[in-house]
Predict the structure.
Amino acid sequence: MPGVNNGVVSCFPALSAMLLSFGARSPRHVVPRAALWARSPFLGEHVRHHVRPASCNPLASLAGQTISRPAPHEGTVCGFIGPAAERVLLGARRASCPGGMRDHPPSRRPYSQGNVQNPGPAPKIPLKTRLLITAVLGGGILAFWLYLRAEKEHQKKLRRIEDLRKLALGQGNFQLVDHTGRPCTKADLKGQWVLLYFGFTHCPDICPEEVEKMVNVVDLLDREPGLPRVQPVFITVDPERDDVAAVAKYVKEFHPRLLGLTGSPDQVREAGRAFRVYYSAGPRDQDDDYIVDHTVIIYLINPDGLLMDFYQRSKSDAKMAQSVKKHMETYRSIFS
């Protein structure tokens, strides 16, 4: 209807100018690439502005003008909005982006700030450094474990000594005579380590075995450099038959340092009571011979004159020597 369109244009010149402003575009109007991608404030994603071709522009048809333009190519778009409307849209987009308009490709994340940088590989620690760290940590753990073990052994030894004190073993004194005929008391043995055994010279098997084991321990400890000498002592429980001469002959068969002690029945009894040694003479035979039943224990006395440990018959000489060595290495005088 050309008549109607001309009438609208002639009657409303201002409306006609506005319509032409929205409809009249240059044949090749290029919209900036950044304007093709706008972030939708409602959807949170990039939305492409779709435009309709000029043939579908009702405002251009109403204004009575036909707009023809070539087909769009990459990077351009033929819209139906005029320069004024385009400036309004671009101004609204600048207001919604405080940092300014930037040309972000569609592969970027919606809310990323700045350039995305891929983290590089973590720095490798040199092998020597790792071995050094492992050695330091392992050494510290080992040292701490050894300290705890030594402390545990020390506390165990203290408890054992305390138990022996409560039993009052070896705390009494004795006054005897040695195998040379000189008086000997317990105080004379202070200041040195002592291995002590109670037996009798007529014992057929057990006493010789235990005395031999005791002097073997002395020989084993003598081979250890830096350790103090141990004094082996034999006290008879048969004072009737074991006089000074009998004891002297007996000790010479085992070791040159072995000290033999004897005395009267009362003196021997007092010495046995200090260590809670049991002994009793058995029945006599036709030859007036008898066997003495007694406790079979080897006692260890420290330089303070106190009982440190004791070893029963089942203990071997090697284990006894090892035990005595540990006591010597961890010994602390209670009087110092």
